[in-house]
Design brief:
The protein has 3 helices and 8 strands, in the order αβββββββαβα. It has about 140 residues and is of the alpha+beta class. The relative contact order is 0.20. The structure holds N-formylmethionine.
């Protein structure tokens, strides 16, 4: 998963999280690697979703090149195990929360397109960069 994330960064320029099913491993395992967080989540489950939601652009390197606005809870609390088998509780908001939710979807066979994105917002990477380069997105 680390290798694939690193490869994606080289090939498409981003990659902050990956779920095991994305590389054909059917385990409930997530790796998140951002400047703010470096997490391995084993058997994660949601403990809380905030009522407040926001809408942000997402894409996925399982089918790169498409972007769209997806509405999700702003904050989540997740309980998971570390690789060493210790329980960890992560309270996340903002972009970390969104990455966690995006990756948790992969564990259940969902991708962001299943989350009812705003159809008018769907665009290619080129269009996205042209239109929204100034917006914080990923
Ligand atoms: C908004 S979450 C985006 C997650 C994506 N990872 C997998 O496809 C990535 O950009 O790393």
């Amino acid at each position: 998963m680390r290798d694939t994330l690193a490869d994606m960064r080289q090939r498409i320029g981003y990659g902050r999280g990956i779920a095991a099913p994305q590389i054909g491993v059917l385990k409930r395992l997530i790796l998140i690697d951002t400047p703010e967080a470096n997490l391995v989540l084993v058997n994660p489950r949601f403990e809380r979703w905030s009522r407040e939601e926001d809408e942000r652009y997402e894409s996925c390197f399982s089918f790169p090149g498409i972007w769209g606005l997806v509405q999700r809870p702003l904050g989540v609390t997740v309980v998971a195990y570390t690789l060493a088998g210790e329980e960890q509780r992560i309270e996340a908001s903002g972009s970390l929360s969104r990455i966690i939710q995006h990756e948790m979807d992969h564990l259940d066979g969902f991708v962001w397109l299943d989350r009812n994105p705003d159809l008018h917002s769907l665009c290619t990477t080129q269009e996205y960069e042209k239109r929204y380069v100034s917006r914080e997105s990923h």
